[in-house]
Amino acid sequence: MLTNIHCDYCEEESDMEYNFLQKYFHLYFIPVIPLKKKTTVGCENCGYLYEDKEFTKAIDTKLNRVKDRYPIRTPIWAFSGLIIITLFFCWAFWQSGRHDVVEGDYINNPKKGDVYFLNFTSGNYTTLRIDKVDKTNVYYTLNDTSVYKYTKVFSITNDKYYTNKKGIYTRQKIQDLYKKDSIISITRK
Ligand SMILES: [Zn+2]
Predict the structure, then answer these.
(1) Where is the Zinc-ribbon domain positioned along the sequence (predicted)?
(2) Ligand 1 center from residue 101 Cα (angstroms)
Protein backbone atom coordinates (compact mmCIF):
# COMPACT_ATOMS: atom_id res chain seq x y z
CA MET A 1 0.00 0.00 0.00
CA LEU A 2 1.20 3.46 -0.90
CA THR A 3 -0.02 5.91 1.71
CA ASN A 4 -1.19 9.48 1.39
CA ILE A 5 -0.84 10.27 -2.28
CA HIS A 6 -2.64 13.01 -4.09
CA CYS A 7 -5.05 11.56 -6.65
CA ASP A 8 -5.51 13.60 -9.80
CA TYR A 9 -8.99 12.19 -10.35
CA CYS A 10 -10.76 12.63 -7.05
CA GLU A 11 -8.42 15.40 -5.90
CA GLU A 12 -8.06 13.75 -2.50
CA GLU A 13 -5.09 12.57 -0.49
CA SER A 14 -5.68 8.87 -0.61
CA ASP A 15 -4.01 5.49 -0.06
CA MET A 16 -3.27 3.52 -3.19
CA GLU A 17 -2.99 -0.21 -3.78
CA TYR A 18 -0.22 -1.33 -6.12
CA ASN A 19 -0.02 -4.46 -8.19
CA PHE A 20 2.94 -5.89 -10.08
CA LEU A 21 2.12 -8.12 -13.00
CA GLN A 22 4.58 -10.27 -14.86
CA LYS A 23 3.37 -11.27 -18.29
CA TYR A 24 4.50 -14.51 -19.87
CA PHE A 25 4.57 -16.05 -23.24
CA HIS A 26 2.67 -19.30 -22.70
CA LEU A 27 2.80 -22.55 -24.57
CA TYR A 28 0.09 -25.01 -23.55
CA PHE A 29 -0.32 -23.17 -20.21
CA ILE A 30 3.38 -23.47 -19.42
CA PRO A 31 5.15 -20.12 -19.01
CA VAL A 32 7.97 -20.18 -21.53
CA ILE A 33 9.43 -16.69 -21.65
CA PRO A 34 8.79 -13.84 -19.20
CA LEU A 35 7.62 -10.80 -21.12
CA LYS A 36 7.41 -7.25 -19.76
CA LYS A 37 6.38 -6.40 -16.26
CA LYS A 38 3.26 -4.32 -15.77
CA THR A 39 2.41 -2.23 -12.73
CA THR A 40 -0.94 -0.78 -11.80
CA VAL A 41 -1.87 1.51 -8.91
CA GLY A 42 -5.47 1.93 -7.76
CA CYS A 43 -6.84 4.82 -5.77
CA GLU A 44 -8.62 3.57 -2.64
CA ASN A 45 -10.88 6.61 -2.58
CA CYS A 46 -12.30 6.85 -6.11
CA GLY A 47 -11.18 3.48 -7.45
CA TYR A 48 -9.34 4.89 -10.44
CA LEU A 49 -6.72 2.47 -11.78
CA TYR A 50 -3.49 4.09 -12.90
CA GLU A 51 -1.49 2.32 -15.61
CA ASP A 52 2.30 2.60 -15.83
CA LYS A 53 2.33 5.56 -18.19
CA GLU A 54 -0.12 7.63 -16.15
CA PHE A 55 1.79 7.57 -12.87
CA THR A 56 2.19 10.96 -11.28
CA LYS A 57 5.50 11.99 -9.81
CA ALA A 58 4.22 11.23 -6.31
CA ILE A 59 3.17 7.71 -7.30
CA ASP A 60 6.50 7.07 -9.05
CA THR A 61 8.52 8.22 -6.05
CA LYS A 62 6.66 6.05 -3.55
CA LEU A 63 6.54 3.08 -5.87
CA ASN A 64 10.29 3.21 -6.45
CA ARG A 65 10.81 3.23 -2.71
CA VAL A 66 8.77 0.02 -2.45
CA LYS A 67 10.67 -1.58 -5.35
CA ASP A 68 13.98 -0.71 -3.71
CA ARG A 69 12.92 -2.34 -0.49
CA TYR A 70 11.38 -5.44 -2.10
CA PRO A 71 13.16 -6.03 -5.39
CA ILE A 72 11.18 -8.17 -7.82
CA ARG A 73 13.13 -11.09 -9.13
CA THR A 74 11.93 -13.24 -11.98
CA PRO A 75 11.50 -16.67 -10.41
CA ILE A 76 13.18 -19.66 -12.01
CA TRP A 77 9.84 -21.36 -12.71
CA ALA A 78 9.08 -18.52 -15.10
CA PHE A 79 11.48 -20.24 -17.44
CA SER A 80 10.13 -23.75 -16.85
CA GLY A 81 8.73 -24.04 -20.38
CA LEU A 82 12.04 -22.97 -21.86
CA ILE A 83 13.87 -25.46 -19.66
CA ILE A 84 11.50 -28.29 -20.65
CA ILE A 85 11.88 -27.51 -24.35
CA THR A 86 15.67 -27.33 -24.09
CA LEU A 87 15.84 -30.62 -22.21
CA PHE A 88 13.59 -32.26 -24.77
CA PHE A 89 15.78 -31.21 -27.69
CA CYS A 90 18.93 -32.33 -25.87
CA TRP A 91 17.32 -35.68 -25.25
CA ALA A 92 16.09 -36.06 -28.87
CA PHE A 93 19.51 -35.13 -30.20
CA TRP A 94 21.22 -37.59 -27.90
CA GLN A 95 18.74 -40.33 -28.86
CA SER A 96 19.22 -39.87 -32.60
CA GLY A 97 22.99 -39.83 -32.23
CA ARG A 98 22.93 -42.96 -30.12
CA HIS A 99 20.72 -44.73 -32.67
CA ASP A 100 23.18 -44.08 -35.49
CA VAL A 101 26.15 -45.19 -33.42
CA VAL A 102 24.46 -48.48 -32.53
CA GLU A 103 23.36 -49.21 -36.11
CA GLY A 104 26.77 -48.27 -37.47
CA ASP A 105 28.18 -50.87 -35.14
CA TYR A 106 25.62 -53.48 -36.32
CA ILE A 107 26.46 -52.91 -39.97
CA ASN A 108 30.21 -53.16 -39.34
CA ASN A 109 29.82 -56.35 -37.32
CA PRO A 110 26.86 -58.26 -38.72
CA LYS A 111 25.60 -61.13 -36.60
CA LYS A 112 23.43 -64.14 -37.19
CA GLY A 113 19.81 -63.20 -36.47
CA ASP A 114 20.11 -59.54 -37.48
CA VAL A 115 17.10 -58.34 -39.44
CA TYR A 116 17.53 -55.60 -42.03
CA PHE A 117 14.64 -53.46 -43.21
CA LEU A 118 15.07 -52.92 -46.92
CA ASN A 119 13.84 -50.41 -49.42
CA PHE A 120 15.28 -51.35 -52.82
CA THR A 121 12.52 -49.83 -54.93
CA SER A 122 10.35 -46.94 -53.86
CA GLY A 123 7.12 -47.88 -52.10
CA ASN A 124 8.29 -51.43 -51.58
CA TYR A 125 9.62 -52.55 -48.23
CA THR A 126 10.83 -55.94 -47.16
CA THR A 127 13.34 -57.52 -44.79
CA LEU A 128 16.19 -59.96 -44.79
CA ARG A 129 17.53 -62.07 -41.99
CA ILE A 130 21.19 -62.91 -41.49
CA ASP A 131 21.76 -66.68 -41.25
CA LYS A 132 25.53 -66.86 -41.14
CA VAL A 133 28.53 -64.57 -41.21
CA ASP A 134 32.14 -65.24 -42.11
CA LYS A 135 35.22 -63.12 -42.71
CA THR A 136 34.10 -61.71 -46.05
CA ASN A 137 30.48 -62.65 -46.57
CA VAL A 138 27.04 -62.37 -45.05
CA TYR A 139 24.58 -65.19 -45.79
CA TYR A 140 20.95 -64.23 -45.63
CA THR A 141 17.38 -65.25 -46.33
CA LEU A 142 15.18 -62.67 -48.03
CA ASN A 143 11.63 -62.25 -46.83
CA ASP A 144 9.06 -63.98 -49.08
CA THR A 145 6.75 -61.00 -48.98
CA SER A 146 6.94 -57.24 -49.12
CA VAL A 147 4.75 -54.33 -48.07
CA TYR A 148 4.14 -50.91 -49.56
CA LYS A 149 4.35 -48.96 -46.31
CA TYR A 150 7.34 -48.75 -44.01
CA THR A 151 5.14 -48.99 -40.93
CA LYS A 152 3.64 -52.27 -42.16
CA VAL A 153 7.02 -53.96 -42.27
CA PHE A 154 6.55 -55.09 -38.67
CA SER A 155 3.73 -57.36 -39.82
CA ILE A 156 6.08 -59.50 -41.92
CA THR A 157 8.94 -60.08 -39.50
CA ASN A 158 7.73 -63.51 -38.35
CA ASP A 159 10.14 -66.40 -39.02
CA LYS A 160 7.63 -68.15 -41.25
CA TYR A 161 8.21 -65.53 -43.95
CA TYR A 162 11.83 -66.58 -44.42
CA THR A 163 11.83 -69.76 -46.47
CA ASN A 164 13.95 -70.24 -49.57
CA LYS A 165 15.17 -66.90 -50.93
CA LYS A 166 18.79 -67.40 -49.93
CA GLY A 167 21.54 -65.01 -50.92
CA ILE A 168 25.04 -63.82 -50.18
CA TYR A 169 26.38 -60.29 -49.79
CA THR A 170 29.94 -59.26 -49.14
CA ARG A 171 30.41 -57.28 -45.94
CA GLN A 172 31.38 -54.34 -48.13
CA LYS A 173 28.13 -54.63 -50.08
CA ILE A 174 25.92 -54.35 -47.02
CA GLN A 175 27.84 -51.29 -45.89
CA ASP A 176 27.21 -49.73 -49.31
CA LEU A 177 23.51 -50.60 -49.11
CA TYR A 178 23.34 -49.00 -45.67
CA LYS A 179 25.02 -45.83 -46.93
CA LYS A 180 22.59 -45.67 -49.86
CA ASP A 181 19.65 -46.14 -47.45
CA SER A 182 18.59 -49.32 -49.23
CA ILE A 183 19.04 -50.83 -45.79
CA ILE A 184 16.87 -48.49 -43.73
CA SER A 185 17.41 -49.92 -40.31
CA ILE A 186 18.66 -52.92 -38.42
CA THR A 187 17.21 -54.77 -35.49
CA ARG A 188 19.13 -57.15 -33.29
CA LYS A 189 17.58 -59.21 -30.53
ZN1 LIG B 1 -8.83 9.00 -6.46
Answers:
(1) 5-54
(2) 70
